[in-house]
């Protein structure tokens, strides 16, 4: 019969005395790293899309309610930066900083008030006292 590549690879491993456990473990680890990378890249893309939406918000549709709905999850994202790789932390910090700046500008343009800077500033200052150094540095 016709055998798949996986079956042929397993057969070669048996001939060499390899049980295939090591190879399967390496494949699982590789799949886990790829999944984590895709998840990290997804966060970065979402932040970039939100930044673009806010930057080109010509209608001034960012209201106080939208601002408040976005502020909590975005500031919560800062709390998660302590548990990610240094490279991902740097990229997300940059993207999040740009996004928060655009959010502040968009909400001021949409509401005509700069008073909403205070909750944003407060959330960021709270993160400067976080227990994780990665969060404080972000």
Written description of the protein model:
This protein has helices at 5-15, 21-55, 64-80, 86-111, 117-127, 133-137. It has 138 residues and is mainly alpha-helical. Helix 2 runs parallel beside helix 4 (86-111), helix 3 (64-80) runs antiparallel to helix 4 (86-111) and helix 3 runs parallel beside helix 5. The mean pLDDT is 77.
Detail the topology: elements first, then pairings.
Layout: H1 5-15, H2 21-55, H3 64-80, H4 86-111, H5 117-127, H6 133-137
Helix pairs in contact: 2-4, 3-4, 3-5
SS strand fraction? under 5%
- Silhouette: elongated
The helix content, as a percent range, equals over 70%
The helix/strand order is HHHHHH
Number of helices in the DSSP assignment: 6
Cα gyration radius (Å): 23 Å
Mean pLDDT level: 77
- Computed structural class: mainly alpha
Describe the sheet with the most strands: none
Poorly predicted regions are none
């Amino acid at each position: 019969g016709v055998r798949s590549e996986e079956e042929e690879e397993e057969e070669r491993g048996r001939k060499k005395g390899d049980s295939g456990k090591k190879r399967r473990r390496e494949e699982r680890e590789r799949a886990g790293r790829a999944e984590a990378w895709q998840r990290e890249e997804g966060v970065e893309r979402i932040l970039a899309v939100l930044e673009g939406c806010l930057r080109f918000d010509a209608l001034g549709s960012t209201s106080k309610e939208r601002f408040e709905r976005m502020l909590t999850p975005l500031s919560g994202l800062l709390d998660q930066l302590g548990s990610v790789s240094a490279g991902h932390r740097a990229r997300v910090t940059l993207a999040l900083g740009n996004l928060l700046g655009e959010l502040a500008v968009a909400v001021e343009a949409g509401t005509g008030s700069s008073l909403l800077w205070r909750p944003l500033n407060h959330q960021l200052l709270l993160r400067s006292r976080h227990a994780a150094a990665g969060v404080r540095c972000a």
